[in-house]
Each structure stands twice: as structure tokens, then as C-alpha cells.
Amino acid sequence: xxxxxxxxxxxxxxxxxxxxxxxxxxxxxxxxxxxxxxxxxxxxxxxxxxxxxxxxxxxxxxxxxxxxxxxxxxxxxxxxxxxxxxxxxxxxxxxxxxxxxxxxxxxxxxxxxxxxxxxxxxxxxxxxxxxxxxxxxxxxxxxxxxxxxxxxxxxxxxxxxxxxxxxxxxxxxxxxxxxxxxxxxxxxxxxxx
Length: 193
Hints:
2 domains; two-stranded parallel sheet; single chain; two-stranded antiparallel sheet; 13 helices; Arc Repressor Mutant, subunit A; Rossmann fold; 4 strands; mainly alpha
């Protein structure tokens, strides 16, 4: 139960690792907390504590002198099209985080809490916060990339000529279907209905 109650700690620890590029810093070999802190403009002592928290999650390893990457941390690399970095950033950013903070209000009222939490509907909020919008779009694209091949493989296409990817962000899923099934035409739409 304690793990469930404190699960949000993990979300923020992972977000910090993603935000400050630990996977990229450790990609070519071990590094000290001080070196990472200096490269990112962070406090060295706080960075050391954060990296030690990452050790407890299996994100990094520590040999007493330096930190090194793990396969789990590699999922947060910036240069991997299937990276979960943007998901880690977007899910703990204000656009999602603040709305989840009003979850019990949603249970009481039955109403979505996006506007009370953010002052705007989510896509209007994203229009005002382009960095968050970019992270969210990249996260959705990465998740789509992970499943697009399987979707294209199992899709029953008998009698279907057109694919519409609603909420398609970069349209990776529909693009994969279009490449796999040349007779298709398609479009991707990211605007809310």
C-alpha cells in the first residue's frame, strides 16, 4: 500500500531523469553527479541525491564513485524514436499533473477537472504552452510507434479504403497502416471535435 500511496514520487523522479538527460549524459560511460550537475546547471548535492533515488528504481547504477546507465534508463534517451522520455516529461508536467490533483473533485461532481485545474481546455492550454504540447505530441507518437506495426498486421481491412487517425499527433499509426496496405488512403487529425 505504501508503494501505491507514494507512487507519484516515482513519477517525479523519472521526470527529473528525463528532463535533465541522464540517459544522454551516461550514454558513453559513467559520470559523477557533479559532472551532470555542471552540464545541466543543477545543484551538485541535489543531483547526487536524485541520482541515488534513481539507483533505488533501477534507472542508474552507482559504484561508489560514478553513476552509469542501465537498460531501463536507456528508454529515456532523446535520440530513440521509441523513447519514453517525452511520456515521462508530459505525464508529470502541469497539463496532466494539475488535473490529476483534482481527481477527487471529479468523483464528487462527475465533471472533468481540466478547466478548473488549468484555466482552459487541454488543447487550449497546450496552445499556450508549446513545450508541453510538443512533449505530449512526441509521447503519443512514441507510444504509437511501439504498436503501429502490430496494428497494421492485425487490422481487418476487407472493404476498407480510407484510414482516419483521430488524435493522431504525428500520424505514425496511420502512416504505418498506409505503408503496409498500399490501397489505403488516409488522414490524421489532431484537432478536438
